[in-house]
Every structure is written in structure tokens, then in C-alpha cells.
């Protein structure tokens, strides 16, 4: 299992802390240090849709000029933008054998990893 994100993001920190506290093994991939390939973004988009990958609530999106935002008319443009500005990817991205989860919700992680 691999978790993608930015180390100083509070939501990513919460997810990493939860995984550690619950002894769930993972590999961490830091967007800022390692980037994310267009191929990986295309794979994720095929699973959850590019609309969910693009975090329009974040500061990076809000700081974009209107002209740039207007160019995001489909998957191709969105993924190119996410590739160039990976801090706009909804995070963390949890990639595992049976799927992909965006964001951190403790209840979801419990359902995935703590089968009582």
C-alpha cells in the first residue's frame, strides 16, 4: 500500500498518524519531493474521475487566475495542471490493492483496515 501526499499537509499528517497508530504498513510518496507522473494521474482519474482529484477547495486553486481556471475543460487539461501543480491534488491519495481513497476520513480507514 502506498500513500501519496505532502508531508506538511495537516490532512496527510492525520492519515499517516492513524496508519502508524493502527500498525498498518505503508510506503509514503511525497508529491513535493518525488512528483507524480501523468501516467499515475491518468490511472487515478480512471478509478475516481479527474474531478475528484482536483482540489478546488485548496489555496493553490484559489490563487489561480480566472483565465487558467477557464482552461480546465476536461480530463486532459486537469491532469496536465495537476502534473504541473501537484499541491492541487486532493490528498492524501491512498492506493492499495483493491482501490483508491482520496482524503482522510477516520471511519473509512477503520472500515478498510480494522476488520473486527
UniProtKB/TrEMBL annotation:
Q: Which Pfam families match?
A: ArsC (PF03960)
Q: Which Gene3D superfamilies match?
A: Glutaredoxin
**Membrane-spanning intervals of the chain:** none
Q: What family does the database annotate?
A: Belongs to the ArsC family.
**What name does the UniProt record give this protein?**
Spx/MgsR family RNA polymerase-binding regulatory protein
Source species of the chain? Mucilaginibacter arboris
Amino acid at each position: 500500500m502506498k500513500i501519496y501526499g505532502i508531508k506538511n499537509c495537516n490532512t496527510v499528517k492525520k492519515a499517516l498518524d492513524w496508519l502508524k497508530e493502527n500498525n498498518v504498513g505503508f510506503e509514503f510518496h511525497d508529491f513535493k519531493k518525488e512528483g507524480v507522473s501523468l501516467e499515475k494521474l491518468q490511472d487515478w482519474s480512471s478509478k475516481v474521475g479527474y474531478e475528484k482529484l482536483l482540489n478546488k477547495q485548496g489555496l493553490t486553486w484559489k490563487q489561480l487566475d480566472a483565465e487558467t481556471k477557464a482552461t480546465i475543460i476536461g480530463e486532459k487539461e486537469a491532469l496536465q495542471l495537476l502534473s504541473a501543480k501537484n499541491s492541487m491534488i486532493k490528498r492524501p491519495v491512498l492506493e492499495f490493492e483493491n482501490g483508491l481513497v482520496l482524503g482522510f476520513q477516520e471511519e473509512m480507514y477503520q472500515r478498510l483496515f480494522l476488520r473486527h
